[in-house]
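Handout, page 2. Input:
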Amino acid sequence: MAEEIPAQPQSKTDLFLSFTWLALQGFGGVLAVVQRELVEKKRWMTREQFVEDWAVAQIMPGPNVVNLSMMIGGRYFGLPGALAALAGMLAAPLVVVLLLAVLYGSVADQPMAQNALRGMGAVAAGLITATGIKLIAALDKNAMGMTVCIGLAVLTFIAIGLLRWPLLWVLLGIGGLACVWAYRVLKRKEEAGP
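Output:
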């Protein structure tokens, strides 16, 4: 079966409105929302493209989804597209967050408000885990292979979740190892030819 060609945003306004909608849905568990909207609903990217672009967005400084929005905007409309996507990600949420900060300030000491935030944290963790599990299938097409990718994911979990290593060292160590491994695999495939 031929690989499906992704759709693309119709205009910079489409980018702005789409990323505004994404930003307004993405409180806490934004990865799940972004993957569903961009891959499943809008079909602006394949699952494999999403996994690759999300990985790049994660290692860049700043919020992952903002980085991803600018990458997508820039891909289709250059700098004006990146700025439209960035504005969509930040404008409406800024207003909402400022309003919520004012409201939360009046109830921050209440146990019910503190427990509500703890509950939201658990839901966000569940959303991220569910999305990660859903995206595992995209690793089949990764040059390194499913086994190596899962091994790297387990190493990363151990380093961050159990050993509490700083993210920078994990990115440089395990991320660097993954880059070298992927380069070698791709080089071998290139030398072997079609």
